[in-house]
Structure formats: C-alpha cells, structure tokens
Write a structure and sequence with these properties.
By secondary structure, this protein is an all-beta fold. The protein contains no helices and 29 strands.
Length: about 325
C-alpha cells in the first residue's frame, strides 16, 4: 500500500503532512510531469489513480479531506492531465485512436459540465502522455503522443467556441516523447518536448497563430520525462529540469530561445531523480525528487533571479501547485 499525503510549504520549513488516503496502487501519484493538484478559490482538488480509476478528493483547509470520488476509468497514472483556472477544471486522458476530455467546476465536489467526450486523433493507435492548458482566452489545448505502427507522433489540439482544431506540427520518430504545453499569454501557446532517448535536447516552439521554428538546447541534455509542466511568468516559460550528465536539478526558461541552466539542487550520481515547479505569478517553487525516500525544495520570490536555501522532506513521489 502507499499513502497519499498533503503538506503546506510556508515561507520556511514545511507543515506536517496530512493523510488524504491509503491506496493499493503502487504509483498513485507518479509521473511528475503531469499536474495532479488544483487550487480553487475555496477548495483544493487532488487527483490520483487508484489502480483502476482516476479519483479525486477535495479540502477547504488542507487538513480534512473528502472521501475519494471516481470520475473516469484509467489505464495508468501518467495517462491523464488536468488544468485549472479559478474554479474551472479540465482534464484529458489517453485512449485508442482518440483522447477523452471533460470540464467542470470545483467546489466541495466537482460538478462536471457534461459526460466525458472524445476527440479522434489524426494518427491512429495508442494515445498517451496528455498535457493540457488553457490559453488567455480560455480555449482548451491538449498535446498527446500517439504510437502508430511502431512510430511515435506528437499532436496538438485546440478547442475554441465548441470546436476542435488540429494545431499539430510535424514531429515523429522511433522514440516516445515527453511534452508539456502552456499558455504564454495574449492567446499564445508554448510547447516544450523531447524524444525520450536519454540523449535528446529539449525543444521549444511558440504558437502565435502558427508555430515558430523549433529552438533546442543543443548539446546540453536535460530530462523532461521526469519533469513537470512549464509555468508562465510574464511572457516567459520556466521549467525545472533534471541534468542527468551533471547530477543536478535546476531552472531553464524559454521564450523564443533558451536561457542558460541555473543549478539549484545537487544529486548523488546515478540517483534516479525528477523535478516539478509551480508559481504564484512571481515567486517560483521547485521540488526535486532525489530518491525513493526524500525530496528537496527551493523557493525564489523574484521570478527566479535568486533562490533561498533548500529544504528536505522525507517522502516519495511529489507534485505541487500554488
């Protein structure tokens, strides 16, 4: 069994963890590149996989949590993503020849707008690793990976005024992809993706009515498959990335090109690691999964210009949300 807990991370230290649930799923919360926590105006919603279904629990104070409620069937913890704005919540999950999606309103329970709907993908096959966002006009975007006849394809879709449009660019190969999609303000979208080969560079593109040319990190190798969503501050995307080569976790930013890497957390060589990030619009919080039993987190209060000392927490897989 594994225990799902919730902790507040104040200006210093960390609150005692509160148990949300105990589950028999071995990976209820793994897959740190996917959002699993949404903070509404009055309630926080936590989503996880119980080994069979996707479920959620809500809390108004972070201490008392409602019983888990099932909202969709599931095939794995990394096959669903959620995005929130105010009390609105959207999700997408993978499937076969399509992805499924739904929207709702968060409160003591989630009130879903309608039954789950499906969007057929252009490529046919197994659809997985969704990443979702809402742009500044509240249009819903989803990036998904499709395995079709031995080739992996990356597709991007936008839902505006009740209609889906294929916003994909040409990207396919023999290796699976990790991708994160995010609003960049003014109706624009950014996507950061990587072929999961262990040696591929990170690539970024920006949508401003059409996709920009690809910009990558060159010979520097940072692992996105173990990283979180990108977060937006002003018009810049920030991600927390694991530098496998130099055994460290740090910060990268992307507009139309990449910043240099800011080293924040050192890791014991050969340790499996991951990183996740959130922001309140100016401050940045980064958590690094250092091993099977501990994480560390660092905070910046000035958009990543300076970071304080790191704090350690004894836990396993983690995810965060402002």
């Amino acid at each position: 069994d594994s225990t799902l807990t919730f902790s507040n991370l104040p200006a210093s230290g960390v609150s005692d963890p509160v148990t949300i649930t105990t589950t028999t799923a071995s990976s209820a919360f793994a897959g740190v590149w996917l959002t699993k926590v949404c903070k509404g105006t009055s309630y926080t919603t936590v989503v996880w996989w119980d080994g069979t279904n996707y479920v959620y629990s809500t809390s108004s104070d972070g201490t008392t949590w409602a019983s888990a409620a099932t909202f969709a069937s599931g095939t794995g913890v990394a096959n669903l993503d959620i995005v929130c704005s105010g009390n609105a919540i959207y999700y997408a999950r993978g499937g076969t020849n399509q992805f499924s999606w739904r929207s709702g309103t968060m409160g003591a329970t989630v009130t879903w707008d309608a039954a789950e709907a499906n969007r057929a993908t252009t490529q046919t096959g197994t659809v997985n690793r969704p990443s979702v966002t809402l742009d500044s006009q509240s249009d819903f975007w989803a990036a998904v990976v499709i395995l079709s006849a031995g080739t992996y394809y990356l597709e991007v879709w936008e839902r505006a005024s009740g209609t889906w449009a294929d916003r994909s660019f040409t990207e396919n190969g023999a290796t699976n992809y990790a991708a994160t999609i995010s609003t960049m303000g003014s109706g624009n979208i950014g996507i950061i993706y990587q072929a999961v080969s262990g040696t591929a560079a990170l690539t970024g593109r920006q949508w401003t009515g059409s996709w920009s040319a690809a910009s990558n990190t060159g010979t520097s190798v940072y692992d996105l498959s173990q990283s979180s969503h990108a977060v937006l501050i002003s018009s810049t995307l920030y991600i927390a990335a694991w530098d496998r080569t130099n055994s460290r976790i740090g910060l990268l930013s992307f507009t139309s090109s990449w910043s240099s890497f800011t080293n924040l957390i050192s890791i014991t060589p050969s340790t499996d690691a991951g990183a996740t990030i959130t922001t309140d619009g100016s401050g940045i919080l980064i958590i690094g999964d250092l091993a099977a039993s501990s994480v560390a987190f660092v905070i910046s209060r000035n958009s990543g210009t300076n970071f304080g000392a790191s704090y350690s927490v004894a836990t396993d897989e983690s995810t965060i949300q402002n």
